[in-house]
């Protein structure tokens, strides 16, 4: 997975779109320029069985239409069944090394990390990128940890400069730049796009904020 694909990493489930058609929201976000999409179907009312499979296939097809990687959160069977480009797991979702062994090199593997030790373990297990945060306070994930700021990203980037990092947690267009300046390759968002009145515009503005923060001379890649 190249770093450019992490620039604007959109995460969404069917229950994250404030009652709107989630596929319509995803389509708008893709038109706006999101560079990666993760299907995270969790929480009350989460789809299961055939409805989930159908929804996942719809998300996959939209992502393929725009040439954007389609990642599934914490569901290897669904990822395999839909021909997903990758799988993302948290620290409580299983052993990263075992999952890498099972998927081989045919899928991207992303791992959530909350400190440098977890980053080291994910790297050793074969992670292609890290999701680090929450950078800022967030309400999108009720079980989220306390905000850690950008320092952890800086520490992990310093220790493992070859491992791409995407920041997550409370990130919006107006606070994305410090995340990139700390060493992240991109920003990951849920509500900043999924709850936006105009998801396409929100995605476009995030993409521009990340692009400006990555301008030569502003940060070291």
Automatic annotation (TrEMBL):
Mg(2+) binds at residues 74, 93. SUPFAM superfamilies: Thiamin phosphate synthase. It comes from the Bacteria. Residues 8-193 form the Thiamine phosphate synthase/TenI domain. InterPro entries: Aldolase_TIM (IPR013785), ThiamineP_synth_sf (IPR036206), ThiamineP_synth_TenI (IPR022998), TMP_synthase (IPR034291). The keyword Disulfide bond does not apply. CDD domains: TMP_TenI. It catalyses: 4-methyl-5-(2-phosphooxyethyl)-thiazole + 4-amino-2-methyl-5-(diphosphooxymethyl)pyrimidine + H(+) = thiamine phosphate + diphosphate; 2-(2-carboxy-4-methylthiazol-5-yl)ethyl phosphate + 4-amino-2-methyl-5-(diphosphooxymethyl)pyrimidine + 2 H(+) = thiamine phosphate + CO2 + diphosphate; 2-[(2R,5Z)-2-carboxy-4-methylthiazol-5(2H)-ylidene]ethyl phosphate + 4-amino-2-methyl-5-(diphosphooxymethyl)pyrimidine + 2 H(+) = thiamine phosphate + CO2 + diphosphate. Condenses 4-methyl-5-(beta-hydroxyethyl)thiazole monophosphate (THZ-P) and 2-methyl-4-amino-5-hydroxymethyl pyrimidine pyrophosphate (HMP-PP) to form thiamine monophosphate (TMP). One of its GO terms (molecular function) is thiamine-phosphate diphosphorylase activity. Belongs to the thiamine-phosphate synthase family. Binds 1 Mg(2+) ion per subunit. Its EC number is 2.5.1.3. 2-[(2R,5Z)-2-carboxy-4-methylthiazol-5(2H)-ylidene]ethyl phosphate binds at residues 138-140, 170, 190-191. This is Thiamine-phosphate synthase. 4-amino-2-methyl-5-(diphosphooxymethyl)pyrimidine binds at residues 38-42, 73, 112, 141. The keyword Metal-binding applies. Its cofactor is Mg(2+). Keywords: Magnesium, Metal-binding, Thiamine biosynthesis, Transferase. PANTHER family: THIAMINE-PHOSPHATE PYROPHOSPHORYLASE, THIAMINE-PHOSPHATE SYNTHASE. Pathway: Cofactor biosynthesis; thiamine diphosphate biosynthesis; thiamine phosphate from 4-amino-2-methyl-5-diphosphomethylpyrimidine and 4-methyl-5-(2-phosphoethyl)-thiazole: step 1/1.
